[in-house]
Amino acid sequence: xxxxxxxxxxxxxxxxxxxxxxAALERLGAAALSTDAVVHELYxxxxxxxxxxxxxxxxxxxxxxxxxxxxxxxxxxSPAEREWLEGLLWPRxxxxxxxxxxxxxxxxxxxxxxxxxxxxxxEAGMERAYDATIAVVADEEIRAQRAAARGHEAxxxxxxxxxxQEEKAARATYAVRNDxxxxxxxxxxxxxxxxxxxxx
Length: 200
Fold this sequence. Notes:
Blueprint: E1 6-12, H1 18-27, E2 31-34, H2 35-42, H3 46-56, H4 68-75, H5 79-105, E3 113-117, E4 132-137, H6 140-149, H7 155-160, H8 165-171, E5 174-177, H9 182-198
Parallel strand pairs: 1-3, 1-4, 2-3, 4-5
Helix pairs in contact: 1-9, 2-5
């Protein structure tokens, strides 16, 4: 894209610090969107609620409110179930991202970049939707400590679905390490934003 802020996909493994990086990028002048937050919104959509109840029964949405852990248990039960859920959600997430990006580009003073946190960016083949991609990587021991501290359920199962950190870093336009403190992370991300602005 020649003009305006670049649309950037941000990814990384569990515990690498994607959310921390997204918040840092926002502080540095980028507009930020989390696809996890978009999915959370989508679970309030009556069409999505009806679809998951139709697939898995009333226990996934007691009182009409989607129980995300219950949905996850069904979705992780088999590749076919996971693919069904991804087929339901991902097109809606993509449409929401495009609408958000269009709105951000209309601001009187556009942001330095439009950054979308997308955990399964490469696994879902979604990199083509972005002008550039950033992979956040961290030491495996640090990642394990962060994941445990946040009480991630089914970490092994989720990690099996993901490419290795090395593969994500190799496929990304920019790879940023998050082994140090917040200042180190912000400095690295500021450099990425500077480089993005030079490639418009």
